[in-house]
Amino acid sequence: MTLLALSPAGVLSEFYISFWIPTAVLTAALVIKLPTIIRLWRDPLLRAVGGLLLLACAVFVFCTPSTIAAVNRVTGVTNISVPWCYSLLTAFCGSCLLLIITWRNGLSDRSGATRRAMRWVVSVYSGVIALLWALFLLADAPVERLRDLDTYYATTPFMREEILLYLVAHAVACLITSRLIWNWVRTEGLDAWLRWGLKLLGAGYVLNLIFDASKLTAVGARWCGRNLDWLSTDLAPPVAALSAILIAVGFILPHAGQYLHDRWRVRLAYCELGPLYQLMRSVNGEGVPFVLRATPELRLTRRETFIRDVLLPLARHIDTGLAGRAYEAALGLGHPPERARALAGAVSVLDAIEARRRTPEPAEAGTGPDTTNLLQEIGAVSRALRSPDDIEAVRAQAAAAAESVAVHE
Length: 409
Hints:
Low-confidence stretches: 1-16, 405-409
Number of helices: 18
Largest sheet: none
Structural class: mainly alpha
Number of strands: 0
Shape: elongated
Strand content: under 5%
Distance between the termini: 96 Å
CATH class of the largest domain: Mainly Alpha
Order of helices and strands: HHHHHHHHHHHHHHHHHH
């Protein structure tokens, strides 16, 4: 085994994350957010999220070595990508601060402190970007460096100050943003998806601080005549890529997580109504027509409506005495009250279907029992229909109770 393989640089060179991976994740986050941003374009917070994700994508696209070389070649200016990439990174940092300040305090907050903080961020980071370009124009950087520019020009006049300026601006922004996020995470009453999203964002910004520390240490080592370039060329890039992935997922999670959770609840409710829906189809002879483009919510609503529409005329055949005995029987068999009501409802519905087949119209067609609770608990009744053994046990117990009452009478 060679000495290089045992060195930190040799180990870290094996751990490589392509910059196109975080770019793809950030693009996915932007695509997920884009419909909401377009629909609610007047919302400045959503516009800020879109702008921040777009800037993050641009950072990783233009900081890729192949893109750096292409920009230098197209413009004909050696290392022109340096102030361009540093400016994108600085603008991203400022956008992060603005977004967190606005997001944390809310759009309705128009306090002087919030406005001053936002003006301070815009002024300082705009000034940093202007200074980055001025320093580059003053510097002499004739040799194109695609991967190790920070350490290669660490002692070059004006380039030295440019490198230090962007790293300090980035570190300060990440430190403040991380502090604001972690303070927010500890706030009571946060939605679970938002809390997890903030934790991922916080972890991403902590990794950004590791990126800054690695770069600054490598640059400082050059100032001291030592060589720790592996910190900048081998450690910092995968840390930055992993940080971007966490930040992108942190922005996606509150929106996508809640969306998927709502879709899962709708789908679960739709499937839970399956047994009762099939039972009502056997009574009615037809079901809800399938519509290809119907949303899950619309399909659920149609299924619920169909079940209630069939139950309403069927309710005239329900035996309220049987329902009461079935409930007591279910309790006697050890079922909790909620489950007992569902089983009693299932027994009542099955008995009503049988009664309707024997006598299509009850003796008093204009009257019927109060079925408000039954119509409200169709989900629980449908779930109970999945347990035919429990239903049979309750029916047998209820029938035995009815016989006992008849004997005593």
